[in-house]
What does this fold into?
Amino acid sequence: MPPAAALKSATFPRFGLASWSIVVPFIALLAVVLGKPSGIAMAVALALVLGGAIMSAVYHAEVIAHRVGEPFGTLILAFAVTVIETSLIISIMLSEGNGAQALARDTVFAAVMITINGIVGVCLLLGGGRHHEQGYTQSGVNHGLAILATLSVLTLVLPNYTTSEVGPFYNANQLIFVAVDALMLYATFVVAQTIRHRDHFLYPEEIDGVHDPVPKAKAVAAAVMLPLALIPVVLLAKALSPSIEAGVAAMGAPHAMVGIIIAALVLAPESLAALSAARANRVQTSLNLAIGSALATIGLTIPAVAIASMAMGLDLELGLSFKSIALLGLTLLVATMTLSTGRTTLVQGMVHLVIFSTYLFTTLVP
It folds into this structure.
């Protein structure tokens, strides 16, 4: 998605926002009244409306982001996407019960692979192809990768090796402990990104406070519309969850594809924003979006899902398979090497894309 200030859409005369971003949430709210889809055509129509509501939510978050500037901008975008993702996961957990006990793990893992390999890979490949080399602030990326590695192991690997519960599960006390740790680490990252070490995540011109101006009235209108766009996302996701499950089963695909579909759906607008930034030779923004989204996915989604699972009395399967652990370890190892120089090239992008394609292929052909 291009920056909000650069969008050429028709504007809503009163608020100065793109007219589609005002209309779509109300269409989505109307679609909620229809309830669960009764056929394929209705399911497709509701899916399109859901996609539009997600795009609208991220658009309004982007307007607010341009008002407050970086790095608050990427933080708001990541938070909005995480709210959507968490809502989708919990909605399906409510409808499927213990049948969706691995959904949070699959979705979080998919989000990490999409952001760190998919988004970063495409951005580095296309950005390097257009601009030869691109620079970024290395220290900020290092902060993010260090926290991502810690969160990934604590939430997705360690459950396989604890002995209080059999299998890839934490018991209640362990789950609470890890959820609190995840929140603390994410909060630490946010403080570093926005207060203590803000310059580690910015371009020089952004350090001076230069960013696209957005009128206060437009930002206020976006703040009002953002929750109006998020509410139908949650409700439509709940209505569509049986169709998503049935579609994956009809394809004969592994159940993990449900998590990939959810992650891909909610990350699509943010992926376009990162790609637009890379093409504009602003790979710092692309990396902020990708790494920030991965951190928010684990640091916010896992605690929220943990609370929901305990409240509903559901088991939460978090531990990855050995194959997935190998891919996660390879991803973190390669990311620390490819993003350790402060300069990017298309070679690094291709490496990440190969890992991402391997993840997708081995999910479909395990």
